[in-house]
Design brief:
mainly beta, single chain, 2 helices, 6-stranded mixed sheet
């Protein structure tokens, strides 16, 4: 169990880890990464009184994930960030083995967080059907501190046909009623989203479930339900989908359904599942609406149980968050556009010459003359290649075990590439398709053989 006292007693270890992190030559310039140790799912994303708060799953004393709580950074402009004190410690009987993922809910300028408390029993248990608690907890907060951890529900409150895997709460309000969406795994190994109902944001009862009529994974993690324009959207992360050549290429997937959901009458119609990202490193996305009424998505730039590695562990840190992305509906698709604030990091625009090598480590590149096939080198051994309707991202040694990802796209009309020191985020056709990846090469390298491109050298985030 990681509590505040243990954290403070490890002050010297944390300082030494910070020194090692600073030595990493591929330390990210404009992404949120852990000050020390491990990072995974974004949690509790919100904006309160003009300040953005990004929380995330964090293990500050171990770069390979140990005791999990919530880290915290804040920003007023999404360019300059402040590292805040560690937020949620797993220090109660309800979350002693991990303060797992959750979300924020703001009403009347009052902020609450709902999250999953993980408890594992000692002994020989499978951790799925027995030997585990997934408790739904609530804390009320000013974004920096919080009071009592309140148990909202435990496994006895979930439907009887569920395993112990029920987690990742997200709140949605409709017509004065509060609904909680939770990812779940049934005893028949069927993934789904459970919906609970409350009139006071404290007492929740089971309301309905959302599932497919066909086999679609054994667990749906990190559910997120919201309205965007005239569409209703359900995001989730199905685990257990069979990999195909052009889709479901990662061990676990992240995507969305357009859904016609009538919460009052407990009916729904699911559209097709569409992946949010086709790269190697994207999982557990979470969205929130900011004070400008933008729907913003941030994902974990990593993935659980992958068989590739991150050399940053040598420097006592691992994983990062994606750049924030504004969600929009275009041509009946959910698209992701890099937030406009990132333009403040741009240097002077440079028009690139075909075939010439550019050695900027951090940049945003835009293609403005796409017609037919092309090949771009993003590092000496990393290529983005489009031919016969197939886009391929292929990585060599600098992929640290990442090899190739493919997307079938009839036509490519636009391309934006955000290259940080050890990451690539590629937005195709105005964000209709995205590829998010970590990459590890000591030298920068960028060359186009076929496309006219423009590049904006980018500055760095400021952390304080």
């Amino acid at each position: 169990m990681l509590d505040r006292k243990i954290y403070q007693e490890n002050f010297k270890k944390l300082q030494k880890m910070k020194e090692e992190v600073a030595k990493d030559p591929l330390l990210l310039a404009y992404h949120i990464y852990p000050e020390t140790g491990w990072l995974n799912d974004p949690n509790g994303l919100c904006q309160l009184d003009g300040t953005y708060h990004f929380y995330y799953q964090a293990s500050p004393l171990d770069e390979n994930r140990a005791d999990i709580g919530w880290g915290h950074v804040s920003s007023t402009d999404l360019i300059n960030y402040k590292r805040e004190d560690f937020f949620i410690f797993p220090d109660s009987k309800y979350d002693k083995n991990g303060a797992y993922s959750g979300s924020a809910f703001i009403e009347d300028n009052k902020l609450s967080f709902f999250y999953t408390g993980n408890v594992k029993y000692p002994g020989d248990f499978d951790g799925i059907n027995e030997g585990r608690e997934h408790n739904t907890l609530r804390i009320d907060s000013d974004a920096y501190t919080y009071g009592e951890k309140i148990l909202i529900m435990d496994n006895d409150d979930y439907p009887a046909d569920m395993t112990k895997h029920v987690r990742d709460p997200k709140i949605y309000k409709k017509d004065g009623t509060y609904y909680m969406f939770l990812g779940a795994r049934s005893k028949d190994d069927k993934g789904m989203v459970l919906v609970f109902k409350s009139e006071n944001l404290k007492d929740f009862t089971y309301h309905m479930r959302i599932e497919t009529a066909y086999d679609f994974g054994f667990m749906w993690e990190c559910p997120d339900f919201f309205d965007l324009g005239d569409k209703q959207i359900l995001i989730c992360c199905p685990q257990g989908l069979a990999s195909e050549k052009y889709k479901f290429q990662n061990i676990y997937q992240s995507g969305y359904f357009f859904i016609d959901l009538d919460l009052e009458n407990k009916t729904y119609k699911l559209g097709n599942f569409e992946e949010l990202d086709y790269g190697f490193d994207f999982y557990a996305p979470q969205t929130f609406e900011d004070e400008a009424c933008r729907r913003i998505l941030v994902g974990w730039m990593g993935i659980p149980d992958a068989d590739y590695t991150n050399p940053s562990v040598k420097y006592k840190w691992q994983h990062a968050l994606t750049i924030p992305r504004e969600l929009k509906i275009k041509n009946q698709r959910l698209v992701q556009e890099p937030i406009k604030e990132l333009e403040a990091l741009r240097g002077s625009k440079i028009d690139l010459e075909k075939g010439k090598v550019y050695e900027e480590l951090t940049f945003e590149a835009s293609a403005y003359n796409i017609s037919g096939d092309f090949k771009i080198y993003l590092r000496k051994d990393v290529t983005l290649f489009y031919k016969d309707g197939i886009l391929s991202l292929k990585m060599g040694k600098s992929g640290s075990g990442r090899d190739e990802r493919l997307i079938k796209i009839d036509e490519i009309t636009s391309l934006r590439i955000f290259s940080d020191r050890s990451s690539l985020e590629i937005f195709i056709n105005d964000g209709a398709y995205v590829m998010t990846n970590r990459v590890y090469a000591q030298e920068g390298y960028f060359k186009s053989e076929d496309l006219d491109l423009a590049i904006y050298p980018l500055g760095a985030f400021t952390f304080s």
